[in-house]
Amino acid sequence: MSLQVYINGRFYPKEEAKVSVFDHGFLYGDGVFEGIRAYGGRVWKLEEHIDRLYDSAKSVWLEIPMTKAEMQQVVVETCARNGLRDAYIRLVVSRGPGDLGLDPRKCPQPTVVCIADRIALYPDEVYEAGMKVVTSPVRRSPPAAHSFQVKSLNYLNSIYAKILAVQLGYPEVVMLSSEGYVVEGTGDNIFIVKKGRVITPPTYLGILPGITRAVAMEIARDCGYPVAEEIFTLHDLYTADEVFLTGTAAEIVPVVEVDGRRIGEGSPGPVTRQITRRFRERTQTEGTPIPLPVQGD
Ligand code: PMP
């Protein structure tokens, strides 16, 4: 059976899942989204993702035409209909169809889309041996212009950096703020570990308040490590004992080289491994259940 995609209250086979070319999500990147995971028949951190979606929408003056509880149900039902127990879920709310001008008031009906599909992961090698990355010459947009605190459909800043990563042959690049502070990856948050302290940049630099980032901070605290949201520089990154990236799709990725500088021993460090282990345990046991499809459904 073809993948079933939710659009505005109905499910459509993948081939027929279409939205208007007048949708301002398409014309202007005007909208917000979430990337969510399901593990073993449970949606991981669903409430947190829905809260962030509604915060993003509020920030861009977009009113989502359903309650948070209804939106949670959309996600769970999209997984259930597709018989997916392990999935990557893309939830999108765009401004909706309007005219050819920017004015969001011309778009009376937002478009709500939910796609659940199988997840394409980094190869195991990346988690076992660690990832080599470089820093991107493309800087993160300053928060005064466009903040990545909002998970909007406007990802060109990250795409510019990703193009460079692809051209240079790296799976991911580290982005810096316009002042040169380390901020995040194109689609992941970043952490350093130095003398047992676990440090990640503060969100006021205009980075996404990652759900995986929050879980990694919680686990690190539970393990007894001091955790800080602190601004840090490239020098701090190069001289860290450990570096790792966090994201819904990537989970926790050890970084073993940055711009040709070996990090720590050049293999995933003990703090990263401990956090990863606990993270995996939690994803296997927590989450919002997806009902099994009823026969004949
Ligand atoms: N930063 C950016 C720019 C991202 O796109 C993502 C992935 N959504 C993240 C960080 C990681 O956030 P999360 O852990 O919520 O997936």
In short:
The protein is α+β, with helices and mostly antiparallel strands. It is 29% helix and 26% strand. It has 2 domains: 4-119, 2-Layer Sandwich (D-amino Acid Aminotransferase, Chain A, domain 1), CATH 3.30.470; 124-283, D-amino Acid Aminotransferase, Chain A, domain 2 (Alpha-Beta Barrel), CATH 3.20.10.10.
Explain how this protein is built:
By secondary structure, this protein is of the alpha+beta class. It is built from eight helices and 16 strands. A hairpin with a 2-residue loop joins β1 and β2. The chain folds into two domains: 4-119, Aminotransferase class 4, branched-chain amino acid transferase, N-terminal domain (D-amino Acid Aminotransferase, Chain A, domain 1); 124-283, D-amino Acid Aminotransferase, Chain A, domain 2 (Alpha-Beta Barrel). Helices cover 29% and strands 26% of the residues. α6 crosses α8 (270-285). The mean pLDDT is 96. The protein binds 4'-deoxy-4'-aminopyridoxal-5'-phosphate.
Kindly provide the name of the CATH class of the largest domain: Alpha Beta
User: Would you tell me the structural class of the helices and strands?
Assistant: alpha+beta
Number of domains: 2
Overall body shape:
globular
How helical, in percent, are the residues? Answer: 25-40%
Beta-strand share of residues: 25-35%
Bound molecules: 4'-deoxy-4'-aminopyridoxal-5'-phosphate
Q: Can you tell me the CATH architecture of the largest domain?
A: Alpha-Beta Barrel
Sheet with the most strands, sense and barrel status: 9 strands, mixed
What is the CATH fold-level name of the largest domain?
A: D-amino Acid Aminotransferase, Chain A, domain 2
Low-confidence stretches: none
Instruction: Give the number of helices.
Output: 8
One letter per element, helices H and strands E, the order comes to EEHEEHHEEHEHEEEEHEHEEEHE
Terminal-residue CA separation: 12 Å
